[in-house]
Predict the structure.
Amino acid sequence: MPSLEFTLMVGCPLKCTFCPQDTLRGLYGKNTKYFSLDDFKTVLGKVPKHVRIDFSGMAEPWANPDATAMLRHTLEAGYSMAIYTTLYGMEAEDAETVAELIRTHAAQVEVMCLHLPDRNGNMRGWKYNPVYEANLIAFIKLGLSGILPRFEVMTMDAGGKPHQDLDHLGIQLGAWVGHTRAGNVGSAAVPGQAILDMPERHGAVTCSFTPFYDQNVILPNGDVVLCCMDYSLKHKIGNLLEHEYYEMYASGGLARLIRVGATDQ
C-alpha cells in the first residue's frame, strides 16, 4: 500500500538514541521547523485517497501543537491512517479529542502504536507527568477495546521493559532490537545495548515493503524523501508544496532508482 509519513516537525525533543536527529537537523538546515496547518491542508489535498497517511515520520507528531487539528482534517477528508506516537506533547484535551476521533473513524485507523519510554533511557527527552500517565492508560484501554484492526505498544529496550517511573502500571512488553537506520546510528549512540548491523550491499537493492518506492516521508518544508530510514536525506524525490503527487514518480532521480532496484542481483 502506498503511504506518506508526515514529519510534523524537525528536531524532535525526545532525542531518542535510535533516532538520528542531529543528522537530520544538520542536513535539513534552517528550513521551517514546524509543518503549518495551512501547508498540511495544501499537501493533503494533492495526495490520492488510496495513499495511507501516517502520523510518524522522523519526529513525534504531537510535538507539533497543530497535530490534533491535522488528525481531524485527515480523517474527515476520508483518508486511511496509521498513528505512531509517544504521546509527548498531547495535553488532556488533545487526548480526549484524539480518542473520540479514533472511535468515530475507527475503520480508517489501520494502525495505532504507542511508543513508551524504556528502562535503558533511550528516550532521553521524556519526563514523567501525571497527564502523560492518564493519557497512556486511556489509549491502552482504547486499543484493547478491540475497535482497531491493529494496536501495538513498544519500547526501544532489548528487554522490553518500560521506564521505571511506569513500573506501577505493570506493563510487560516484548524485546526490541534496534538497527543502524540505514547506517545513520552507530553502536556508540546506544552503549550497553545490542544493535543489529545491516550488511553493506553493492549493486541492486529493493525494498521489502514496496517495489514502487511509494512509502515516503514528507518534511515540514514540503520536501519528500525516499523513506523513514533516509535521515541523511540522500534521496529527495520531490516537494509537495511545489509539485503534484504523481510528478514525483516521473522524476529522473526516482526513475533511475527504480531501474537499479529492478536489476537482477
